[in-house]
Specification:
Largest sheet: 4 strands, antiparallel
Strand content: 15-25%
Number of strands: 6
Shape: flat
Radius of gyration: 16 Å
Helix content: 10-25%
Structural class: alpha+beta
Length: 129
């Protein structure tokens, strides 16, 4: 399991720290997200396995996180769209966020994090062969 580092560096300077992991809210029960309504980076993982479900940067982190799972009116979708249902329910997920000053800083930080993660996977794979 490889997760993002605690500090994020963007444009040569640290832009923020990750929040603690939080349980993903259940919209059907009226729970809400605790996330910045501005630019930043987010990560959503499966609670038990640590599998990364979603990761990215956004101009509005709260809005991006709210779109990870489909809305309550998914029953209105046609039958051929059933494959688009999520693999996990909201109770099986956890998330964390990191605020950024600008959208550009958030994109740079997310890109750097993906680069670090890919490098770690390559090193791990090279050691396994």
């Amino acid at each position: 399991m490889i997760r993002a580092p605690d500090a994020i560096w963007g444009a040569g300077q640290m832009i923020g720290r990750w929040t603690a992991w939080k349980r993903f809210p259940n919209a059907f029960q009226g729970e809400s997200l605790e996330a910045p309504i501005g630019p930043g980076v987010y990560e959503v993982c499966h609670t038990e396995t640590g599998e990364q479900v979603s990761f990215g940067s956004a101009a509005n982190v709260a809005e991006a996180l709210s779109k990870v799972l489909p809305s309550a009116d998914t029953r209105k979708w046609p039958f051929f769209r059933r494959n688009s249902r999520p693999r996990y329910s909201s109770s099986e997920l956890e998330y964390r966020t990191c605020p950024a000053g600008t959208v550009v800083e958030a994109r740079v930080a997310a890109g750097q994090m993906l680069g670090h993660r890919n490098a770690m996977w390559r090193r791990f794979a090279a050691g396994r062969v």
